[in-house]
Amino acid sequence: MRLGQRTATFGSLGVNSKAGRAGQPRLQAYGEVQAEGRLVGYNATLQGGLLNHRNPYVLPASAIRRTIVVTSTGTVGLGYAGLRLEALPTWISPEFTGSRTHRWNTLGILVAF
Predict the structure, then answer these.
(1) How far apart are alpha carbons 100 and 15 in whole angstroms?
(2) How is 6-54 classified by DSSP, letter by letter?
(3) What does the buried/exposed string (b/e) look like for 53-90 if buried means 16 or more CB atoms within 10 Å of the residue's CB?
């Protein structure tokens, strides 16, 4: 879901050059929320490879969580002319029994030239 003032999503691939911005507002401010669900059948990172069964650092299949939730809790963007700043906090649910949730932030600077 996206709210705010921004150029059309399919009108450009991010920020526009000066020629591409003609007739559009110079200021863009918006927020965006995304949620994603994943179903996991086999996680080779945690369960080991298909051909290597002697790795002591793997988890049994019973310890793997089969449903994972990932949310990008809100992209906040502010753009002016050919410059855009974005911040995106992300959260992911535990991937195996005994693990914790993880959160991280991404900062982006987009420049059109």
Answers:
(1) 36
(2) ---GGG-SSS--TTTTTTS-SEEEEEEEEEEEEE-S--HHHH--SS---
(3) eeeeebbeeeebbeebeebeeebebebeebebebebee
For the range 98-105, what are the long-range contacts, defined as Cβ-Cβ under 8 Å and sequence gap of 24 or more?
Answer: 98/63
Confidence of residue 2 (pLDDT cuts 50, 70, 90): low
- pLDDT: which is higher, 69 or 28: 69
Q: What is the pTM of this model?
A: 0.65
